[in-house]
Amino acid sequence: MVIINQVRVRYGNQLALSIDTPLSFKAGDRIGIIGSNGAGKSTFVKTILGLTNYQGSIATDLKPEEMAVHMQHNHYSNAMAVKHIMESILNTKIKKNEILQDLISFFDFEECLHKKYSALSGGQKQRLTIILVLVQDAPLVFFDEVTSGLDFETRQKLMSKLVEWYRNKTTTLCIVSHYYEELEQLVNNILILEKGQVVDFGDKDELFRKYCGKTVITVDNTPENEEITKNFLKLEAPGHLIALSCQNDQTEKDIAELLIRKDINFRRSNNNIEIMSINAKNKFNGGGKRD
Ligand SMILES: Nc1ncnc2c1ncn2[C@@H]1O[C@H](COP(=O)(O)OP(=O)(O)OP(=O)(O)O)[C@@H](O)[C@H]1O
């Protein structure tokens, strides 16, 4: 569907994106794009959409109108009700458009239709743009930080809705997000970017096994827990956590039994994208695993 090869994007003297190894997106892929601030995620999305000046090759069998995008920031007129914004952007009437009616009801948006844009809450504003994106029914859809700035509960609700909407569809999705738990439920591939370069790209579960092992057990980072877990293989982790790599069932059982015996709370995961990406970036930057 899309093959990206030897692509470079420069802003003045800055090389914002540099992709050497070919990346390909297949129909139906659900791709999570992650990386620190300034890693090049939005530039990557814009480049596939043809919105940057790039060197290199982006081959696709899709027409421009077969790609839809939800960008990070959106602005709409405040002069008219949301209903009229929708109808004028889409050049349709809600009462004559069944897909639009379905989306409005699916996203519980009826009560917002008669409000002005500025009167919508953050979550409602995002739902407006999501509806405008989804109604296009494009085969390739980009979401760039669709839940940014929303509280935890609103984010969860919105993501569950998206998961439900796309459950039985073949749409290819590229989702840029800093919220790893959202990606855990929605994507099966991960692209990790760092300083404009590709750290890794592939199946989410394979990347997890490559960088973390079979499972990861996390405990709070305290001196006591550090002492108790000192004989196990540690991974890089956010500062407040100790992450233990379990390469097989036996190690996992040994660690769990020890932690239960010591009455220590722990979390087991076989898809922790945050810890996977920290370790992928660490390896990419030449670091090794912790002792
Ligand atoms: N229009 C622009 N002009 C100049 N530099 C830009 C422009 N857009 C992005 N950049 C720079 O290119 C780099 C990549 O930016 P980009 O927005 O793609 O990162 P990002 O990973 O999406 O970041 P964030 O998570 O903060 O949204 C950054 O250093 C940014 O400052």
TrEMBL record:
Originating species: Anaerocolumna xylanovorans DSM 12503
Keywords: ATP-binding, Nucleotide-binding, Transport
Domain ABC transporter: start-end pairs: 2-220
UniProt lineage: Bacteria, Bacillati, Bacillota, Clostridia, Lachnospirales
Keyword flag Cytoplasm: no
Pfam families, sorted: ABC_tran
Listed name of the protein: ABC-2 type transport system ATP-binding protein
Family under the similarity heading: Belongs to the ABC transporter superfamily.
InterPro entries on file: AAA+_ATPase, ABC_transporter-like_ATP-bd, ABC_transporter-like_CS, Metal_Ion_Import_ABC, P-loop_NTPase
GO molecular function: ATP binding; ATP hydrolysis activity
Keyword Nucleotide-binding: yes
